[in-house]
Amino acid sequence: MLISDAKRALFVHVPKTGGVSAGVAFERCCPDARSKTPGVKPPLGRHAPYGRILRAEPGVADYWSFAFVRNPWARMVSWWSMIHDWNHSHGPASGKPQEGATRMRGNDMWRAAADYSGFDEFVLRGTDELPRVGRPQVDYLHAPEREVDFVGRTETFAADLAEVERRLGGDPARVPHRNKSPHGSYRDYYSDATRDKVAEVYAADLEAFGYTF
């Protein structure tokens, strides 16, 4: 989540959709960008859904808002790839879990997922056991009687981010893709069971955005 009171704009950061790069662009266009709501405890967090943001700050309900979404099958592979890399660099598999626990990315959800045997278990169990993993992206975009104004897609990230920058009054500039996962085709990761599980869990995203495997 990022808010600019000067530009009356709000960025809703859906996990694993290029949000770090979008945040860089937002902060470049909006030097007053803030990620915290004064007086709200516990803090909203960077992945706060639109509805929760508006409950904490009803005054931003008429701010122009945007978010990005991603093909759910590709998103799950990217998510697992990042957790897998963290696990072997800083998490339980690294042999130095205490060091990993102090790092920003070593949060409780990541440490839990690192215990899964592999991608299949991450999909089949993680979508049931880890609330963030099992949450459709559309849940981040809606509030009572309102929804995010502009929804870009990771698949057309450069063009959609340029539209966001124009809306914020900035000059579109190339923003490096942060936190990029070095995996191959997402389709290579799936069995019939895991492909169907993603379709079931993210059915609302498939209907809303027309994504297919």
TrEMBL record:
Gene3D superfamilies: P-loop containing nucleotide triphosphate hydrolases (3.40.50.300). The keyword Protein biosynthesis does not apply. InterPro entries: Carb_sulfotrans_8-10, P-loop_NTPase, Sulfotransferase. SUPFAM superfamilies: P-loop containing nucleoside triphosphate hydrolases. Residues 168-188 are annotated as: Disordered. It is a single-pass type II membrane protein. It is found in: Golgi apparatus membrane. Transmembrane segments: none annotated. Keywords: Glycoprotein, Golgi apparatus, Membrane, Transferase, Transmembrane, Transmembrane helix. Its main location: Golgi. This is Sulfotransferase family 2 domain-containing protein. It comes from Nocardioides hwasunensis.
